[in-house]
Amino acid sequence: MIPYENLKTLNKPFEEKLRKKFDLFLDKGWYILGQEVSLFEEEFAAYHQEKHVVGVANGLDALILSLKCCKFSPGAEVIVPSNTYIATILSIIHCGLTPILVEPDSKTYNIDPAKIQSAITDKTAAIMVVHLYGQCCEMDPIMEIATQHGLKVIEDCAQAHGAKYKNQLAGTFGDFAAFSFYPTKNLGALGDAGAIICKSEADAAQIRQLRNYGSEKKYHNSVVGYNSRLDELQASFLREKLPYLDEINNHKRALAAIYFQELNGDFIKPHVGSDFHHVYHIFNILHPERDRLKKYLLDQGIATEIHYPVAPQNQLALKDYLTKFDYPISTKIHETTLSLPCSFAHTKADIYQVVEILNKFNT
Ligand SMILES: *Cc1c(COP(=O)(O)O)cnc(C)c1O
């Protein structure tokens, strides 16, 4: 049996280090917003050669607090990909803003820059890009459009830790970048965690306030804040794993390379241009008979996942929040996509086995 994911195996190489961190944590007895959070913020900033990182409770909150920091007028429009995990769109709704869904490029699955231009109205305030599956969006034209129209850019980097476009790291292009360290992400905590990269000390200070009840000074609250602090214990675990992020990504890239080289048959593999350093949070293929393929693989002992089975516009939760429900490219991706095993816990031998079985799938 080859699992899609096994978090216990994935964290095995870090086990000793993590236990040591937990012992230190217990000995110290400082549980909330301590040194581990500050140090992780510094180290995560240094990894990106950035100055300002604020740790928050999770990836959704990272998106929400980034938007809150922008202080857009109620009802302002935020451009967002139609092909994304629902969290991206939820963050816009939670801030009282209007999500405007834009279709992806059918080859990269990421938001199509050409279609952003035509979605801009006089109410547009921001573009929220998602570097989906671990591949950066085409940031040059997107930043150009944003500059032209005076729009903020927020990057959803939940699936793209360490991904690059033209040698520049995801999370360093926009005004804000939201990261999730949900356990399955390329940099995963042992629980919920998130962070925001921002460009100014003023924004960082604002987000620090927002994550802690809007308080600058203890018991003095100047804005209507949240409780969205990065947990001290999770920060201490993340500090242990951050130095291995590139190794984790390179492992996933090496597994993806096997799929690229060895998979034949009518599977559509991801399109990765030479400007893109893909980190394969998810390695997906498209196949017209996706459900039959998934069952075939499971019968042969290979677990797969679907990211995602229901397109955002078809989610009950969004029915009152969208003005348009017709997104054929995104729908087609949702209907045909299948995510194959490609994690830090898999070996090359696992992937060769998956390939061998996949190549025997006859249509
Ligand atoms: C995981 C994910 C999120 C949300 O992160 P959480 O930490 O689970 O809140 C947001 N956007 C995308 C694209 C994700 O994959």
From TrEMBL:
Keywords recorded for this protein, A-Z: Aminotransferase, Pyridoxal phosphate, Transferase
One Pfam match: DegT_DnrJ_EryC1
Molecular function terms, GO-annotated: transaminase activity
Family: Belongs to the DegT/DnrJ/EryC1 family.
Protein's name in the database: Aminotransferase class I/II-fold pyridoxal phosphate-dependent enzyme
Organism per entry: Pedobacter gandavensis
